[in-house]
């Protein structure tokens, strides 16, 4: 019994050593036919015939074993390449690929240079990258150099200096907006010209630029307008085969009835009282502020176009021929009559 007990640890150690040895397989793999390697694409092609019997018995184990052996052969081939150590990392330099991989589409052609790129290439002008963020001395913070919320934006200033020799009554804010819209239109036209030059087409120098393919909504709106172009405004027109109902057709407004029962009217009034007594703000401050700013900008633009003066002429009051201002008079009679005038 003692001899039998002494042999047990030896068998356990042998079993553990054998298990550990099986877990670390050899890097030497033998194949009847050598694999074809393309180190540039890290590709290994196995021309050996598959053992159908083993494959049918256990498909997953067979595929894992085959993949492991072929991968080991590929790594062995990579370690035969010249290597170098860079920052404690071993790097193998791959050769040029020998297998041509198929492409879905042809190789793209080089993009045509724009006029500015051609000029810069001829003159040897190179782009110097500027930082996007700059310091805004007015707000004392960093802002983008261009684009939305850019630094030193003249259109956002509350005061603009009138240039020397300019009309003192000219709206400088409106002038800045007009100049910006002209620059945007010029850049868009130049962009279209570059696209047309790349596609060997032409872009009109004046007028509207050509539109692309009409969208689905554009076609449906045109169809709805055409349907109403007859004498009956499309009421008696026969629908086209498989024509869907027009989603742009006008809908009649449905008002609530003037005659309702007492309970419904009481419910409406109680809802209004609850909303008022809930303590919630009835006035939207942000919306009111935006509305006031919008009205101020509209008034400024109307004055620039001369509409402000036309509105003043429509108001009441007698007109004087001299340079003095006309005074408004009020009386019991009609405006402008003899009884309404002061003597």
From TrEMBL:
Biased composition (Basic residues): 311-343
Chain intervals with Basic and acidic residues compositional bias: 263-274, 293-306
Pfam family, one: RRS1
Keywords, sorted A to Z: Nucleus, Ribosome biogenesis
Keyword Nucleus carried by entry: yes
Region Disordered: start-end pairs: 224-343
One of the GO biological process terms: ribosome biogenesis
Job of this protein: Involved in ribosomal large subunit assembly.
Protein name, per record: Ribosome biogenesis regulatory protein
The organism of origin for this protein: Batillaria attramentaria
């Amino acid at each position: 019994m003692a001899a039998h007990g002494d042999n047990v640890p030896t068998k356990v150690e042998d079993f553990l050593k054998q298990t550990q040895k099986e877990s670390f397989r050899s890097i030497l793999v033998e194949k009847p036919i050598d694999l074809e390697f393309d180190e540039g694409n890290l590709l290994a092609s196995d021309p050996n015939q598959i053992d159908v019997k083993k494959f049918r018995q256990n498909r997953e184990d067979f595929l894992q074993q085959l993949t492991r052996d072929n991968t080991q052969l590929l790594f062995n081939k990579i370690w035969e390449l010249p290597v170098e150590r860079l920052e404690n990392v071993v790097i193998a330099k791959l050769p040029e690929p020998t297998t041509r991989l198929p492409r879905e589409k042809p190789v793209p052609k080089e993009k045509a240079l724009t006029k500015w790129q051609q000029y810069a290439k001829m003159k040897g002008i190179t782009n110097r990258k500027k930082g996007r963020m700059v310091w805004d001395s007015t707000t004392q913070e960093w802002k983008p150099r261009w684009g939305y919320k850019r630094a030193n934006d003249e259109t956002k200033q509350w005061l603009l200096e009138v240039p020397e020799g300019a009309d003192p009554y000219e709206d400088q804010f409106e002038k800045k907006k007009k100049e910006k819209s002209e620059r945007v239109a010029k850049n868009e036209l130049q962009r279209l010209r570059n696209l047309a030059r790349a596609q060997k087409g032409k872009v009109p120098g004046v007028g509207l630029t050509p539109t692309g393919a009409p969208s689905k909504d554009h076609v449906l709106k045109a169809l709805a307008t055409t349907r109403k172009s007859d004498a009956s405004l499309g009421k008696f027109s026969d629908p086209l085969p498989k024509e869907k109902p027009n989603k742009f057709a006008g809908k009649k407004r449905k008002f609530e009835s003037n005659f309702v029962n007492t309970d419904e009217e009481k419910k409406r009034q109680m809802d209004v009282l609850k909303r008022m007594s809930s303590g919630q703000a009835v006035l939207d401050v942000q919306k009111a502020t935006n509305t006031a700013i919008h009205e101020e900008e509209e008034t400024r633009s109307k004055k620039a176009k001369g509409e402000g003066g036309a509105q003043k002429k429509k108001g009441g009051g007698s007109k004087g021929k001299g340079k003095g201002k006309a005074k408004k008079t009020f009386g019991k009679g009609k405006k402008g009559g003899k009884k309404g005038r002061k003597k």
